[in-house]
Fold this sequence. Notes:
Elements: E1 3-4, H1 8-16, E2 26-27, H2 39-72, H3 79-90, H4 98-122
Parallel strand pairs: 1-2
Amino acid sequence: MPHLMIPSEELDAVRSSPAGSDFTAKVLPFRQHQASPSRSDVTNTQTALRRVEQDLEPLRRQVTSIIDEILAGNGAAEEPVRESLRLHVARNPGEPERGPVEALAQCALRKQRPRLNRSREIGPA
Length: 125
């Protein structure tokens, strides 16, 4: 049985046509969208968000400490890593924990690309 979401008039027209005489359809009800959340829902959401922010504070302090140590390094070989980390931390103000994650993801993608390109050149095994 097909499930249709078409206006009632069109459904009636299909049912009354000769081709649609054996046609059956289940009409699904539309759910009403609540125009705006209640005041208590908003308050509960804000409270939950504040709690999450408080839970993240120890992690953020630790991540900030690690970032500071990495950026304080002065080895020339690590300069691209430090520059990438600086860029990703700057792109995520107030969320220092995202900087290292994005920098590592970018690094992993860069390392994976040559393997992908090589596998295309070699072809399937």
